[in-house]
Amino acid sequence: MARTSVRQLHVTVLVLMLGALSGCTSITKHIGASPSPSVTEQIGVDMHYHQVLDTLGPPTRISALPDGFAFEYESFRIDERQLGLSPNVKFLRWFKLAYGTARVARETYTLVFDSNGLVKAFGNAREDQDAGKGLAFQFIVTVTQVVDTRYLDEWPGQHAWGVSMLQPLPVALNREQSLDSGEHGIEQRGTPTSSGQRTLEWR
Q1: Pairing of the two strands 95-114 and 119-139
Q2: In this structure, what DSSP letter does residue 118 have?
Q3: Which of 151, 170, 194 is at the close of a domain?
Q4: Residues 146, 193: one domain?
Q5: Are residues 95 and 64 in the same domain?
Q6: Domain region containing 80
Q7: pLDDT of 107-153, one tens digit each?
Q8: Distance CA 178, CA 164 (A)
Q9: Interior angle at CA 56, CA 54 and CA 62, nearest 5
Q10: Helices (H) and strands (E) in the chain, counts
């Protein structure tokens, strides 16, 4: 379906729901846990990574670097707003048409260590992103996400290191640039495979 047609469908559904709105729903999902500012203030240059782990806990991602390694702590808050339409028809009144939009608040804290395990650089970033839209037909007493955010729910890369050398083509051909083996850098969740080091993995 063309992008214009999809946009027109979203607008049409939204207008219909505003005309016969049966309810609004808000869903919030938290993924990961970034350290709070009061905790990161305790981190400083030349601090050993053992002290960092004691202060911040295990990182979301870790990667080797040419002259050291890096930690990344990452968390998300996904806020989805839904409009629900339930027709006043005998059987259909028990179901609703739900239209949802979602936004993602992302927090990232990254530390770079030298070959001796001492902090050489660190910094944090916060951003708010559009996570997309979704449409679903569901039971009226059920509240579930209608926006597909599975690309943010993926398991941490460390959990797949054991099979990182057994990926299908064309991913296997891109092994030397892989960001999943803990050897070639750190990547934020949700980064599309059509950009950066993953370009060769795009299908």
Answers
A1: antiparallel
A2: B
A3: 151
A4: no
A5: yes
A6: 3-151
A7: 999 999 999 999 999 999 999 989 889 887 676 656 677 888 877 77
A8: 9
A9: 100
A10: 3, 5
